[in-house]
Amino acid sequence: MRLQSVHIFIITFFLGSALILTGCGGEGAQEASTGVSDTVTDMAEQHGDVIARVGDQDITFHDLNTLLNSSAVVGLSIPALGTPERDTVRIAVLDKFISSNLLYLDAIKQGVDKDPVYQRDITRFSDSVLAGLYWDRQLTKEAEVTEEQIQAAFREKAAADDELTDDTRSQITSTLYKSQRQELMAAAQKRLRDGIKVTVHEENLNIKDDQERADSTPLAEIGDETLTWGQVKDRIIRAGKGAVIADPMVMEDDARMAQLEREIDLRILVSKARAEGLENDPLYQRRYNEFRKSRLINTHRDRLLQELEPDEETLQAYYEENKARFILPETRKLQMVVVKSEQEASDLKSKIEAGKLTMYQAARDHSTAVNAGQNLGEVGWVNQGDLAPALDEIVFSLEPAEIGGPVESPAGWHLVLVQDVKDAEYTDFGDKGTHKRVRRSYLSDKLDAYTVDLRKNEFTVEVYQDNLIRLAQLEADMVGSLTEKAQLPGSVTEERIKELQQYLKP
Hints:
Blueprint: H1 3-21, H2 26-46, E1 50-54, E2 57-60, H3 61-68, H4 84-109, H5 116-142, H6 147-157, H7 166-191, E3 198-200, E4 218-222, E5 225-228, H8 229-246, H9 252-275, H10 282-308, H11 312-321, E6 327-328, E7 331-339, H12 342-353, H13 359-366, H14 372-375, E8 378-383, H15 389-395, E9 403-409, E10 412-422, E11 425-426, H16 432-457, E12 461-463, H17 465-481, H18 483-486, H19 494-499
Helix pairs in contact: 1-4, 2-17, 3-4, 4-10, 4-16, 5-9, 5-10, 6-7, 8-9
């Protein structure tokens, strides 16, 4: 199983668990999971946590754990600590990291970091972070909430016999702090240009000259710095058009001028931030380096995808060779009743089969599922794999109108009725949606093949399996120690990791 199938697994696994398993485990389990994850990461850093090295790029357990615990990885949810599913996704995420780092190194080798659009993007990002840090530092230095202010604010709204609790104090402090920051921001904005000579060339903003205007045309002098049309033209144009759409009463040239004033303020903020040495601030360095790397990877990937773009003949041939990938799977329309115990489910099933009760009545009067009283247990159409495993197996073994169950899931005990079935069928290449899916699949395959070739022939990739096993086991051991409290299984083993080593091979 290579990159594409691993990535597909990530999506399908979470789609499979989302419908039934959302919110399972309870708040205590979730809190315990987070605590264990953070503790494991801390311990990993103390023990040397490099999991893999791609060229000169290290992938750490911290990197892996951060992404693994991010819902953005799959868009839905993340697997529980100590489960086999988490181990599988952990390896898939590592594979993703390896591929991304390969593209990063290849981008540098090919000089993608010299691309003007890329350079513009990272400069803009750098400016925005520096400006934000400068404002934050200035306001943090000056904003201060005193005890007298807290007491006065409390007395203003509180009854005579009310007490100033810790929660109330916290709320008042937050409100006062926000208010002070707003006032300080307004005052700082007014004095931002003090001592700085600013000359604006408003005549160079005429809309009619946009197409002919050279990028070197000056829009403003800010001290010794010149702000040119090429540096800000896309934002100036966008601001003007956006203003017209948002408010027809606002003239486009006024909106363009307002944007230019904002650009001038940004240049001043960046200059002040650099003067204070904020380019050496660890927070700035981390944000800048992360953005620089991710944007370079994305820029390189976009270039590659353009080069790999297939013609219709190639795409048609790819579809015919991989037709099985584009089958619309069998789907089933379900009605479901969820109750708390197996005995209750069995009793309801007996009554339904005896004609004493309908599924609709059972759902309305007994089901604990959300909105069961309104939808009468109708779930709608589901694909195989959408449900919890045991429930999924039952559903796709039933005949239409046959009642299945009782079967258990984390949500409770289920009775299910198949109302209708749509058989699996091939999709038509001429269908617009299918055509898009075929194109995406083709490009994904080609990009995966490209990264595999980089791994084999261009850059060294080392996976430190001992570290991976040790740290996964560390997580499992800690979960095991909290099993009773958190209701989480501690099942990660060396054997389990070894079963997954196939994912680490090109």
